[in-house]
């Protein structure tokens, strides 16, 4: 009986370990992407996800990013540059890039509003990060905090592109709707209107070493079409 009890407990232990591995090791397909892979392709591990992968070209798509940008909408010189980039990086496509750019836009706007410098760091070039961090610090010194709600991205289109050596630069024009206010330490609004949705246009330039195995791009410059001056 003593040996039987030991054998029985061993079987129970093995059963529990297998159950835990089955639950904790299972991928659902809903795992959240981190800042380092927003321009990368997602893989699908089970048969139930293959049909969805075929429909989405195996990339993460935001709900409002279903319309591909027509090649005719891209200036001829820019389109030729995009083709040149694709020669060096066969995995590059306009729509895959725009999907990642949309996600990067949402994340950067959110992190900047929250003052999350750690979240911003991997998404920005050193110079842009320096400027963003300085603005966050200045806001904190005044005892102010920003509240930004990105209502939606109305459109994102490739505005310009260039290839300098191994580095590709692609500028995206974002048209978005936002509600943004700045409050002081007492919670009073010092800038913006919490009840007003504002349409904003931004030109963001992303860069990447096209010979790198890292598929991600960094934000290297921001400007507005009216000012046309980089931050």
Kindly describe this structure:
This protein is α+β, with helices and mostly antiparallel strands and 231 residues long. 36% of the residues lie in helices and 26% in strands. The chain has a domain at 73-231: Roll (Nuclear Transport Factor 2, Chain: A), CATH 3.10.450.240. Strands 1, 2, 3, 4 and 5 form a five-stranded antiparallel sheet that branches. The radius of gyration is 23 Å and the shape is globular. The relative contact order is 0.12. The model is unreliable at 17-36 and 41-68 (pLDDT under 50).
Keywords:
five-stranded antiparallel beta sheet, single chain, Nuclear Transport Factor 2, Chain: A, about 25% strand, alpha+beta, about 230 residues
Secondary structure: helix percent: 25-40%
CATH-derived topology of the domain at 73-231:
Nuclear Transport Factor 2, Chain: A
Shape: globular
Radius of gyration (CA) equals: 23 Å
Low-pLDDT segments, ≥5 res: 17-36, 41-68
Number of helices: 6
Intertermini distance: 78 Å
> Major sheet, described briefly?
5 strands, antiparallel
Number of strands: 5
CATH class of the domain at 73-231: Alpha Beta
Mean pLDDT: 75
| Content of β-strand | 25-35%
Order of helices and strands: HHHHHHEEEEE
Structural class of the secondary structure composition?
A: alpha+beta
CATH architecture classification of the domain at 73-231: Roll
Summed up:
Keywords: Membrane, Transit peptide. It is found in: Membrane. With 231 residues, the chain is α+β, with helices and mostly antiparallel strands.
């Amino acid at each position: 009986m003593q040996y039987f009890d030991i054998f029985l407990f061993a079987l129970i232990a093995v059963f529990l370990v297998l159950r835990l591995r089955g639950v904790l090791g299972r991928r659902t397909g809903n795992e959240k992407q981190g800042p380092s892979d927003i321009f990368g392709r997602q893989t699908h591990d089970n048969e139930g996800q293959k049909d969805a992968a075929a429909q989405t070209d195996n990339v993460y798509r935001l709900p409002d990013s279903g319309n591909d940008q027509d090649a005719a909408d891209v200036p001829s010189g820019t389109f030729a540059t995009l083709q040149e980039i694709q020669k060096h990086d066969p995995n590059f496509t306009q729509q895959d890039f725009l999907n990642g750019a949309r996600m990067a836009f949402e994340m950067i706007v959110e992190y900047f509003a929250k003052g999350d410098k750690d979240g911003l760091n991997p998404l920005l070039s050193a110079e842009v990060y320096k400027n963003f961090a300085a603005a966050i610090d200045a806001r904190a010194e005044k005892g102010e905090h920003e509240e930004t709600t990105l209502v939606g991205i109305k459109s994102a289109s490739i505005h310009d592109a260039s290839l300098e050596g191994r580095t590709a630069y692609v500028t995206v024009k974002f048209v978005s709707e936002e509600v943004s206010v700045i409050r002081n330490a007492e919670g009073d609004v010092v800038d913006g209107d919490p009840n007003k949705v504002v349409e904003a246009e931004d030109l963001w330039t992303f860069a990447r070493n096209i010979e790198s195995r890292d598929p991600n791009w960094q934000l290297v410059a921001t400007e507005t079409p009216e000012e046309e001056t980089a931050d």
